[in-house]
Amino acid sequence: MKIEIKDLYFTYPTGVEALRGISLTVESGEQVAIVGQNGAGKTTLVKHLNGLLLPTRGQVKIGGWDTTKYPVAKLASRVGYVFQNPDEQLFSRNVGMEVAFGPKNLGFDAERVEALVNDALVLTQLADKTETNPYDLSATWRKMVALASILSMDTDILIFDEPTTGQDAVNVARIAHVIAELRKRGKTVITITHDIDFCAENFERVIAMSQGKILLDGRTNDVLGREEILASTYVDPPQLTRLGKRLGFKNTVRNQEEFLNALKK
Amino acid sequence: MAIVNLQNVTYKYPLTDVPVLQNINLQVEEGEFVAVIGPNGAGKSTLCYTLAGFAPHFFKGELTGIVEVAGVESHNSILSEWVLNVGLAFQNPFNQISGAKYTVFEELAFGLENIGIPRDEMIARVEGAMKLTGISDLADRSPYSLSGGQQQRVALASILVMQPRVLVLDEPTSQMDPIGTREVFGVIHSMAESGMTVILVEHKMEWIAQFADRVIALKDGEILMNGDPSEVLTSPLLPSNGFGTSRYTSVARRAQELGLWNEGKLPITLDEAVRGFNSSLTKEEIPDARAK
């Protein structure tokens, strides 16, 4: 399902102009990371994808649907949104009910709901916690519950807002695994992240934003190699990219494998 | 003498059977900057709560062993006295904001009002802390209208105004962008330089490597390692126990396995990695050069 954004402007009621002319297309099945300093407009941009915000000017289309012409409830069948803070979206008595809420609400039959819930719970390694109240779980696991409750809606497009904040190495690996699985299934994933190493290791396309505009948009290695432009939105290149530069590698490297290959040469 | 002294500390939350902290022994010298690392669920936040007196004074539960800060024992103290020595910035700043104040300025003054600081000094301290944490322009905003990163700065400032001898920080930059993280680490570093004792829980290894005097690795409520950052952060025990390491350390470890890293010690910072790889590369090239 294609995402088409044309010349998007958005001004908050307070008068803050958060988006200033965004144009971009995301093809079906792409995995895109959005980076940039706080206040760059990242969250404002992705909130346009499921109609939480509507353009002040310009157009957003999701699989051909103009977001101004479809209610959020309808767009929810195409775009799933995992909030940065899981506590802003969890409300059910137990994990199973929480994860079943979305697909039930989309009107899927009981059999499909069950299959989707099971799949989401297995993917997020929550299968042994279905009876637990989400608020009896640690913040790490609540994050996974929030993730599972969106995965179970089986949308073609998924948005993750800062999935790795406050997560330990093990859980970051778990989240990376979910994203890899979604890639295999042909889902579109758009992730906002400050974790530039996570971005480098898990995404093929990176968009860097600053002050409501797109600074850079391209293949991960190309974008992350533009150190000076990234600095203007206060993004440091990934650790291994910086190390590769300091060692005088000709090409930009973004993960361990690329680094070691370049080192061998 | 150590300003923080924990001896055989074991702590259980109410209504639970399993202790979250087990037999913790930890001494921290005045002015030391100690980082605490560990997987989620290791007991890092509970350790912060214990140092700040919330466990057991606020959370209740069962604490055994000795928790001593600045020569006062936690069991013999009350929270209102304890907070004069120890300040804690919570992991989730939202939980720390009082809810009783309409502006950031008043929020920062709240703790000072409670301990009866004179008005002039209160204003000076609040303004100083706002400047230091870069939130002067937020003075008249409601603490609830701020972004996560801004709230974290407010939470930090509201502890700094109290001028505690021991500053306990639970992932103070988790919701910040890289520039915010850098600024806050700058503030924490300058606090430590000025002689404040800092105990910091953090996942961002690159920053710990640069600033901490000592690293404590916590796992399942116990101290797994306690030592120099370059020893603890490069230990093979970390990856095998679910701890993260910086990419510099992990890539050098892999390179070492492949025979591409010939230095004794693994790096924890960018500069160390650059030096180590450069010298490994030169060492490799020497035999070739001679052959020619």
Main traits of this protein?
heterodimer; A: 265 residues; alpha/beta; Rossmann fold; 2 domains; 6-stranded mixed β-sheet; 11 helices; 10 strands; globular; B: 292 residues; 4-stranded antiparallel β-sheet
Strand order of the largest sheet of chain A: 6-7-8-3-9-10
Helix content of chain B: 40-55%
Helices of chain A, by number, come to: 11
The CATH architecture of the largest domain in chain B can be given as 3-Layer(aba) Sandwich
Largest sheet of chain A: 6 strands, mixed
Q: Overall 3D geometry of chain A?
A: globular
Beta-strand percent range of chain A: 15-25%
Q: Rg of chain A from C-alpha positions?
A: 19 Å
Which chain pair shows the most residues in contact?
Answer: A-B, 36 and 38 residues
Radius of gyration of chain B: 21 Å
Q: What distance lies between the first and last C-alpha atoms of chain A, to the nearest angstrom?
A: 41 Å
Q: Based on Cα principal axes, name the global outline of chain B.
A: globular
Number of domains of chain B: 2
Quaternary state, please? heterodimer
Mean pLDDT of chain B: 91
Number of strands of chain B: 10
User: What's the CATH topology name of the largest domain in chain A?
Assistant: Rossmann fold
Short structural summary:
The complex is a heterodimer of chains A (265) and B (292). With 265 residues, chain A is of the alpha/beta class.
Structure description:
The complex is a heterodimer of chains A (265) and B (292). With 265 residues, chain A is an alpha/beta fold. Chain A folds into two domains: 3-78 and 155-264, P-loop containing nucleotide triphosphate hydrolases (Rossmann fold, 3-Layer(aba) Sandwich); 88-154, no CATH class. Chain A is 37% helix and 22% strand. In chain A, the strands form two sheets. Chain A has a six-stranded mixed sheet with strand order 6-7-8-3-9-10. In chain A, strands 2-1-4-5 form a four-stranded antiparallel sheet, with no helix packed on it. In chain A, a hairpin with a 2-residue loop joins strand 9 (205-210) and strand 10. In chain A, helix 3 packs parallel to helix 5 (139-151). Chain A is globular and about 55 Å long. The mean pLDDT of chain A is 94. Chain B is of the alpha/beta class. Chain B folds into two domains: 2-236, P-loop containing nucleotide triphosphate hydrolases (Rossmann fold, 3-Layer(aba) Sandwich); 246-292, no CATH class. Chain B has helices spanning 44-51, 54-57, 79-82, 104-114, 119-133, 148-160, 178-193, 205-211, 229-232, 237-240, 247-257, 270-291, and strands at residues 2-12, 21-29, 33-37, 62-69, 72-73, 86-89, 166-170, 197-201, 214-219, 222-227. Chain B has a six-stranded mixed sheet, with helices on both faces. In chain B, strands 2-1-4-5 form a four-stranded antiparallel sheet, with helices on one face. Residues 286-292 of chain B have low confidence and may be disordered. Classes of the chains: A alpha/beta (265), B alpha/beta (292).
